[in-house]
Amino acid sequence: MNSPTGSSRSWSISEDSLRRYVYFASESCIQDLLSASDSNRLGNGNDGWKVVTLDNGVEISKRRSGSFHTFRSRWLLKSVSPQQFITVANAIDAARQWDPDLVEARYIKDLEENLCIIRLRFGENSKPLFRNREFIVYERRETMEDGTLVVAVASLPKEIAAGLHPKQNNAIRGLLLQSGWVVEKLEDDSCMVTYVVQLDPAGWLPKCFVNRLNTKLVMIIENLRKIAQNCPTGGDT
């Protein structure tokens, strides 16, 4: 496929091709999230995850994936039910935590009831990574048989993202990140949240910059927790 570099001619992606790509990509992402949330438990310490910090119920870990690192934060959220937290475990609320100068965030296509495409556009006052950039991401939400909630969010490759917006898009940046949450119910309307992020899987940023920013991104759970605690939906059943 050719990128839409000319102003007079562009291409678009078919609904079927988009659905097929996003379904398989999100399925892989969900399995990766579940695997990351299960690791380092019951003495399983040989799965590649290395703890960076462990403090006050918060664990930050990283794992090498080829030449890249995947970062994980695991949080014990007391007095926050899974139903509360899942309301803020989404691409748009997370993007506001990545960078506050999010000037546009909107759902542009529903592929299935639990699978959608979202446009995120950042403004001139954003950090260099996001400044005047646009990202097209998918968001997929699943409930496992045991009640565990999983949300997968990842940006689409530039060729596919540009096919959704065939008019202009030098601003589109492809493959910013793969990320997501696993939310497990605990007693007393509390939950365990695992957040996993791999920034820049395409490898176009300096690794030292990526790892530093990854460390900051996994900490957004703290702000999301505060938002969730103010949500009207509680864990009453």
TrEMBL record:
Pfam families: START. SUPFAM superfamilies: Bet v1-like. CDD domains: START. InterPro entries: START-like_dom_sf, START_lipid-bd_dom, START_lipid_transfer. It comes from the Eukaryota. Residues 46-211 form the START domain. This is START domain-containing protein. It comes from Hevea brasiliensis.
